[in-house]
Each structure stands twice: as structure tokens, then as C-alpha cells.
Amino acid sequence: MDALTIMFYGNKTLMDALNAVDTVDWDRPNVCGVWSVKDIVSHLAASELLTSDIFGLFTGAAEKPMFDRMAAAYATWNDDTVAERRGLNAEQALAEYKTAYLEKMARAEVIGPELLAKSGTIPWYGESYSLDDYIVYGDYGHKREHAAQINVFRDLLKSGK
Fold this sequence. Notes:
The protein is an all-alpha fold and 161 residues long. The protein has seven helices and no strands.
């Protein structure tokens, strides 16, 4: 598996969906539950920071603040991290996402394909799972799901609903 390519295409799918919705519509609610497009982007920025922290466990990073926060407040982490970003405008939310994405990709490159594919390296996710597994489910699949929600929202906007 080529994890870097998979993460690239997850990001591309998301960017394509975002580019199809004018940022003036990013604050409209109910795209994903009560979340707006901007909330989804804020959520994905936090998720990128989380994945970067996970990769940091394998690259010698001294701190893992988002990982620690998620572990401490799993049940409310999504809503908490979105609420913290409510004051951002669309451009700021997207800038945070893009910066976090680049940091995550840089850390993944350092890890390398052999360690990314090694089973049993993330026992907190599942005993036999590898970072590659997490990338497919927790990164790529996650972005595909939210991109699909954004695309449905775009279609509703076009139809006037």
C-alpha cells in the first residue's frame, strides 16, 4: 500500500468537494448533523492534527497534544474541537486544515512504508492493526465520508432546497 498516495487522494477528494461550494455558504448548518461545511473543515483540521500526533509517536515528537486530548475526552472530542474553532472564518479554517495536512504528510514520509505497514504498531486501535490500516479507515475513509456530505449539500444548494 502506498499510504502517502492514499492520503493525497483523500485530501484531493475533500478539496474538490470544498472547491465546489462557495465559502459564503460554508456557515450554513445541517451539512453533517448540525455542522456546517466550515465545522466539517474545522473537525478535519483537528483530525489532521490528531493523525500528525499519532505519526509523531513514531518520529520522536516530544508532545502529542491532540492525541492526549482525544484520549482524555473521547466522547466530546469532536464537538469540543469544532466549538473551539467557531470564531474562525472559512479561509482561516481551511488554512488550519491545510497546515495540519502538510505536517501530517511530512511525518508520514519520515516514518516510511515499512513501519507504516507493520501490524501491531497501534494496539490502542486494535491488536493487529498497522498505521496503514488507520490511514485507510481514519484518514482516507473519514475524508471521503465528509466530502460526500459536502457534495450532497452542494447539490441541495443548486436545487434551491
